[in-house]
Design brief:
Length: 268
């Protein structure tokens, strides 16, 4: 078996060219490949097309590439936490292909499985299937690029829309553990889109928090087999940010409330 470990995140992304398409794992700020994104930012790579549930926040994750104008087009299902994203989209600087979340997940899974397209009920009877969704505006606020209509077909008297799968040039993912052969284990909700992006990318690069030797991972607990992964880089001890933090108000102890100042945090 091939040892797929590379020395650093910078080495791992060094050959990603300008204009490449990237499937990037994560959901919000949970399970995003921060080390790889930072390395890509340092490399100065630009003109990128990203496929990701969302585009980070203004100063973290894919948001740092977006902030510096490195992303030209994104295929996403949620874009609500990034003010710069909204500004670029409305100013005609960024092309956005909004995609229902389940459809986006299946586009990636199908691509990794070698399935070119599939039918789904999601979006039938809306602009998702009928076309006309603004994908890019011009400088005057007019629609420069609108989505095209998609094929709709009836099965058993129910309409379904045809969606094409995705096979981006590269997949960037974050895993809890990985071995030298590229087998990956994800932790809890940090699994999210990561296995799907790993499958879909033609070349998949995985940053792992813990690198182990082949045979140390229980085969029954491996989420992504190494056949889908071409490069592995150790990225231990990196910062994990919380997208939103809610601080509870002081509540009487007898009522079972949280003590003042306690945090309720989303998983990271």
């Amino acid at each position: 078996m091939i040892d797929k470990v590379v020395a650093s995140a910078d080495d791992a992304v060094a050959d990603i060219p300008d204009g490449a398409s990237l499937a990037v794992g994560g959901f919000g700020l949970c399970g995003i490949p921060v080390a790889l994104i930072d390395a890509l930012h340092r490399a100065g790579t630009t003109g990128l097309e990203t496929v990701s549930n969302n585009c980070g926040v203004d100063d973290w994750g894919l948001g740092i590439l977006l902030r510096d104008g490195r992303i030209r087009r994104t295929i996403s299902s949620y874009v609500g936490e990034n003010k710069e994203f909204a500004r670029q989209y409305l100013a005609g600087e960024l092309e956005v292909v909004l995609t229902p979340q389940g459809t986006l997940a299946e586009k990636l899974r199908a691509g990794g499985a070698g399935i070119p397209a599939f039918y789904t009920k999601a979006g039938v009877g809306t602009q998702v299937s009928d076309g006309g969704l603004p994908q890019k505006y011009d400088a005057d606020g007019g629609i420069a690029i609108a989505s095209a209509a998609k094929e709709v077909r009836s099965f058993g008297g129910v309409d379904y829309v045809l969606e094409e799968s995705l096979t981006p040039d590269y997949g960037l993912v974050h895993a809890w553990k990985g071995d030298r052969h590229g087998n990956l284990v994800f932790h809890a909700t940090a699994m999210n889109f990561n296995p799907l992006c790993a499958m879909a990318g033609r070349i998949t690069i995985a940053e792992v928090e813990e690198l182990v030797e082949p045979g140390e991972l229980d085969p029954e607990h491996i989420h992504t087999p190494g056949i889908f992964v071409q490069r592995v880089v150790l990225a231990a001890g990196g910062e994990k940010r919380i997208e939103k933090r809610t601080v509870a108000l002081e509540a009487p102890a007898a009522a079972g409330g949280n003590p003042a100042g306690s945090d309720q945090q989303a998983g990271a």
